[in-house]
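Changelog-adjacent note: as of this version, every example in the card shows the full chain rather than a window. The one below runs 209 residues end to end.
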Amino acid sequence: MTTISHGDKRKSEIVRACRELYQTMSFKDITIKEISEYTSFSRPSIYNYFATKESIFLEIFREEYARWCDDMDGIVKKYSKLSVKSFADKLAQTLENRPVLLKLLSMNLYDLEESCSLDDLTVFKQEYKRALDTVECLLAVYFPRMSKSARNQFIYIFFPFMFGLYPYANVTQKQKEAMISAGIKFPTKRVYDFAYQTIFSLLNNQGVK
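Full-length structure tokens:
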């Protein structure tokens, strides 16, 4: 049985508080002071565990990638074979279930990576690498005739595509009004819809059966 240290428990409480604040507040409005008021910690106490607000958010980001990878691992454990349509469905659903990951990707990634320590960024990138490897593993399992270069092409189109998923699927009222005034027909689709269509199209364009 794994024993969780007192320090890890306190770090988890800080991260959990930041997660909850992020549901209703923007990244720029959340401060260490706000987090301290949401927990039992003083501001100096929080700095014992995280050097900056960005370090806390980067830990949330790392957790999100880990949970996404766990979701994808679950696909392999449950299904021995998948058609292109079924694969697109399953992978798209994993992203539908990860709004925090997609929100951080589209809105805060650059600021987080620039403002955190190299050590923290390296730990985060290790989880990011796991995500890259997991998607490639899925492709290799379900489409064994797909070449290594084709899998890499899929990955380096699909991962940048993920940056735009959240804002396209979560249009604000102000954005809607502006687009209507500008004569733009805005999409009314979920993350799942955009992801499914893109995954299916990428595989189809590569002739995957």
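Structural remarks: The longest helix spans residues 53-78.
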